[in-house]
Each structure stands twice: as structure tokens, then as C-alpha cells.
Write a structure and sequence with these properties.
It is a single chain. The protein is of the alpha+beta class. Strands 8-7-18-15-10-11 form a six-stranded antiparallel β-sheet. It has a six-stranded antiparallel β-sheet with strand order 14-13-12-9-16-17, with no helix packed on it. It is 16% helix and 35% strand.
Length: 301
């Protein structure tokens, strides 16, 4: 019996309703169904009293989700999609992303007519697009305190109020550089249209094997966004005596002490998106973010 998974945002009635409908459709078609919520991909924070708060990357898959699963459906907004990929990427499970949220930049389809939408997927009529994910680890004296996968970005900054931070950053075996800014963002091409874009970073088309580092409100004209090969890991060392906070994909993170370091590198586990048609990135930019739309009337020929 073929197996399929459903991951949904149980805080949204529309997602719960769609999950129940899909479970019925799959069962009627003779598929074994595994059901889970996206909460399992939202990780906690370490604290001063509990400095080690590590959940191994490979241990987040919900019960029943494994390499034998043909695909899974995630129901929710972009936050649920990010959480779901953290859960299933190590198993290599492709995800069909269904938008029950607002912007839905990472989602493939809406919930309008799920039965007809899911039919070609059940028949195997779909493509799989792979997107790079990052492995983020927080280390102290070579001990891993915290780790996670992220599809969009890693952000490190001061809390609770935004103020100047100082970092030493090393990319690969290159010399360390000093950066003074409100924080740092390290993003994938997928994440280049998220927080990185809002902080002034470039849009990077998917599939390009790079990472992008963007200082947040830098204190120097020399500190600007840097795009570099994702074959080289990046290590960030706090160069200050106050505690910082590091956040991955906006919903999981870890406190960073002055003697800690954060390493980011390309993950061996890509995010695998189920696509019902050939992805068209520039159309998505235009539709979701208004990229390339005319703001003035064109001259008449």
C-alpha cells in the first residue's frame, strides 16, 4: 500500500478542514495516511540554566514519516512550510505546499479545489524541485549546543532592544573580517526574498549554489551584502560581552554567549518541492512582490 503524509497548522480552521478532506480522499484511493502538525518543527531556545537544548536534525520526523513515503502535503502558510521541511527533509520526502495563509510565497497551490489538485499527484504526474537548506550549529568549546535546518535564513542580533553588535566573520579558510551592525543575516537563494530582501539584500534565483550574508543596518559604508559559494562554511564569532540571540527561519533559535560561535553550511538534505508545473520564478516575484510591474505609462510608439 502506498503511503502519504499530511502536515498541517492545527491553529487554522481552514487547514484542519483541508487535512480532514485530504485524509478522506487518500484513504478512498487506497493510500496509507500519516497525519502530523507542524509544531514538531518549531524548536526551543537554550537558556542560561539549560545551555544545551539540542534536538538532532535527523530526529524531527513525525511518526510514520520515512523514506518509504511517496510524498506529503503541507497545509498552512509559509511558516508551516518552513517547519514541515525541517521535519521531513532528512527523509527526502517531497512536499506539496498548499496555502491556507496569506502571502504564501513558498506554497504551490490554494485550497480552492483540493480533490482535482491532488489527482495528478496521486497519479505521479508531478516534478520535484530541490532547494538548498542550511545546517546551523551553535558551538561552545567544540560542543554542539543547538542545531537546526533552515530553508530561508539564519539571523543573529541583540535582544531585547535593537542596538549595535560587533562580529568577526570567517568564510571558509579566508581571513576573518569585522562587521559592526544591528545584526547579521545569512540566507539561501530561497531566503533571499524574505528577511534578507527587506534588509537590502539581493534577490537570488533558486538553483544558484550560493549563500548571501547581509548586515542589518551596518555602521560602515564598507559593510554590504556579500554573495559567496555555498561550498564554503561561514562561522560567526560574537565580538562583544553581551548575550545575543540567533533565530533560524523565524521560529527557532538559541541564545549566543560571547564564547560561542555559530557555523552555517550547506545541508546534505535539500528541500524537495512537489511542482505541478514548471516553476516560473519571475512570475512568482511579480505576483507576490510586484517585481517588474510598470509604475509609469510607457511612451506610445
Amino acid at each position: 500500500m502506498p503511503k502519504v503524509g499530511i502536515i498541517y497548522n492545527d491553529q487554522k480552521p481552514s487547514a484542519c478542514k483541508a487535512a480532514a478532506l485530504l485524509q478522506e480522499v487518500f484513504a478512498e484511493s487506497g493510500w496509507e495516511v500519516a497525519l502530523a502538525t507542524g509544531i514538531g518543527g518549531i524548536l526551543g531556545y537554550s537558556t542560561e540554566t539549560k545551555p544545551v537544548c539540542r534536538t538532532a536534525i535527523e530526529s524531527l520526523a513525525p511518526p510514520g514519516f520515512d523514506q518509504d513515503m511517496s510524498f506529503a502535503v503541507v497545509l498552512g502558510g509559509d511558516g508551516t512550510v518552513l517547519s514541515a521541511f525541517r521535519q521531513v527533509a532528512p527523509c527526502g520526502i517531497p512536499l506539496l505546499t498548499v496555502n491556507t495563509g496569506h502571502l504564501g510565497f513558498l506554497t504551490e497551490v490554494m485550497t480552492d479545489d483540493l480533490k482535482s489538485t491532488i489527482a495528478p499527484v496521486l497519479a505521479g504526474d508531478f516534478q520535484v524541485e530541490e532547494r538548498t537548506m542550511l545546517t546551523v550549529q551553535v558551538k561552545r568549546s567544540n560542543e554542539i549546543l543547538w542545531e537546526a535546518l533552515c530553508l530561508n535564513e539564519m539571523v543573529i542580533h541583540r535582544e531585547p532592544l535593537t542596538s549595535m553588535c560587533h562580529f568577526e566573520v570567517q568564510i571558509g579558510n579566508h581571513s576573518r573580517v569585522d562587521i559592526a551592525a544591528d545584526g547579521l543575516i545569512v540566507s539561501t537563494p530561497t531566503g533571499s526574498t524574505a528577511y534578507s530582501l527587506s534588509a537590502g539584500g539581493p534577490v537570488i534565483t533558486p538553483g544558484i549554489p550560493v549563500m548571501c550574508m547581509v548586515p542589518i543596518c551596518p555602521h560602515s559604508l564598507a559593510s554590504r551584502a556579500l554573495v559567496f559559494s555555498n561550498t564554503e562554511p561561514i562561522t560567526i564569532y560574537p565580538a562583544m560581552q553581551t548575550r545575543l540571540v540567533m533565530v533560524a527561519d523565524g521560529n527557532a533559535g538559541c541564545y549566543i554567549r560571547p564564547d560561542d560561535c555559530v557555523t552555517i553550511q550547506k545541508s546534505p538534505y535539500p528541500a524537495r518541492f512537489v511542482r505541478l508545473k514548471t516553476p516560473e520564478f519571475f512570475h512568482l516575484l511579480r505576483e507576490k512582490l510586484g517585481w517588474g510591474l510598470p509604475h509609469i505609462a510607457k511612451p506610445t510608439p
